[in-house]
Amino acid sequence: MQMQDETTDTLCPVARSVDVVGDKWTILVLRELYMGATRFEEMQIQTGATPQMLTSRLKALEADGMVERRPYSEKPLRYEYHLTRKGWDFYPVIYALRAWGETWCKNEDEGLAVHFVHRECGHDVGVASVCPHCGVPVERKDLEASISSRFADERLARREAFKRK
């Protein structure tokens, strides 16, 4: 069940990419996968997606080869979702969205939602893709992530609200 529209008739890589990941819910699902979520319920809690919406996005990501399902329970049959190499290769786009959002979509007093420390030198990279301390280009595997207490509280509040439903 791949998300497609008329852009599949184009050679434009931007249009083709948007076919795969071009909506809010898909981007939020990918964010959760990059943050380590593998279970449906946690992704639903943190994205706010309805079960139907989340199911359709996960199926589309799986059909496109960005995500793979792996069973973690036989009775009842339940799956975890894991990024494939193709899924991980999309990470720089999410990282760029984060940097743009931290710069342009927040109040200055909010601080960074997620801090990334360059493992090699131990310095915070801020929103850069090159470590400002040592000048080395960084990828996700080079970074240690920690979420701010404010963002952690927000995520915890979502879990608690979901449990009360």
Can you describe what's shown?
It contains 7 helices and 4 strands. The chain has 165 residues and is an alpha+beta fold. The chain folds into 2 domains: 1-89, Winged helix-like DNA-binding domain superfamily/Winged helix DNA-binding domain (Arc Repressor Mutant, subunit A, Orthogonal Bundle), CATH 1.10.10; 91-165, no CATH class. Helix 2 (24-34) packs across helix 3. A hairpin with a 4-residue loop joins strand 1 and strand 2 (78-83). It has helices at 13-21, 24-34, 40-47, 51-63, 85-89, 91-104, 149-164; strands at residues 67-73, 78-83, 114-118, 143-147. The model has no long low-confidence stretch (mean pLDDT 93). A two-stranded antiparallel ribbon has the order 1-2. The chain has a two-stranded antiparallel sheet with strand order 3-4. InterPro entries: HTH_HxlR, WH-like_DNA-bd_sf, WH_DNA-bd_sf.
The H-and-E topology, N to C, reads as: HHHHEEHHEEH
CATH class of the largest domain reads: Mainly Alpha
Summing up helix and strand content along with how strands pair, one would put the structural category as alpha+beta
The mean pLDDT is 93
Morphology:
globular
Number of domains: 2
Radius of gyration of CA atoms, rounded to a whole number? 17 Å
Q: Write out the strand line-up for the largest beta sheet, numbering strands in chain order.
A: 1-2
Number of helices: 7
Query: Major sheet: size, sense and barrel closure?
Result: 2 strands, antiparallel
For this structure, the CATH topology of the largest domain is Arc Repressor Mutant, subunit A
What CATH architecture label of the largest domain applies? Answer: Orthogonal Bundle
Topology, number of strands: 4
State the separation between the terminal residues, measured CA to CA: 30 Å
Low-confidence stretches: none
What is the name of the CATH superfamily of the largest domain?
Winged helix-like DNA-binding domain superfamily/Winged helix DNA-binding domain
Task: Give the DSSP E fraction (strand runs of 2 or more residues).
Answer: 5-15%
Q: Percent helix among the residues?
A: 40-55%
InterPro entries: HTH_HxlR, WH-like_DNA-bd_sf, WH_DNA-bd_sf
Protein name: Transcriptional regulator
Keywords: DNA-binding, Transcription, Transcription regulation
GO molecular function, one term: DNA binding
